[in-house]
Amino acid sequence: MIAPRHQFHITFHDDADGRRLAIHGEFDAGAVASFDAGLEDRTANNPRIVLCLRHVTVIDSSALGALVRATAQARSEEHSLEVHAPLSYQQDLIEITGLDSLIDVTKDCQCSEDEVPS
């Protein structure tokens, strides 16, 4: 039996602190282009960007690479990019690969309930 894929999508929320992107589903090689486009379209005028990962069901090396590129891009524009609420396996991947020295990660999540899929 094949497990169903969890469709990748991003929900956005703006407030006085910046832009939050709640990422949902399988964040893998097939989702990177959508992630890049969504990030570029939605963050141009936001100095603080928060990516919430608590609803990501799969993350692979392509997605980790996208997070590194997004962090580098944000820093080059003098913006901040933070990754919030990685699940334990995601946190392990970030630490094992050494990306915790490049990406700002916190276990807290500021995603509101309207950003959470039902």
Secondary-structure blueprint of this entry?
Blueprint: E1 9-15, E2 18-27, H1 32-43, E3 48-59, H2 61-76, E4 80-84, H3 88-96, E5 104-106
Helix pairs in contact: 1-2
Overview of the molecule:
By secondary structure, this protein is α/β, with parallel strands linked by helices. It has one domain (9-115): Transcription Regulator spoIIAA (2-Layer Sandwich), CATH 3.30.750. It contains three helices and five strands, in the order ββαβαβαβ. Strand 4 (80-84), helix 3 (88-96) and strand 5 (104-106) form a beta-alpha-beta unit. Helix 1 packs parallel to helix 2 (61-76). The two termini are 25 Å apart.
Give the tags.
118 residues; alpha/beta; Transcription Regulator spoIIAA; five-stranded mixed β-sheet; 5 strands; globular
Give the SSE order as H and E letters: EEHEHEHE
Q: Overall 3D geometry?
A: globular
CATH class identity: Alpha Beta
State the end-to-end distance. 25 Å
Strands in their spatial order, largest beta sheet: 1-2-3-4-5
Number of helical runs? 3
The number of strands is: 5
Poorly predicted residue ranges:
114-118
Give a brief outline of the structure.
The protein is an alpha/beta fold.
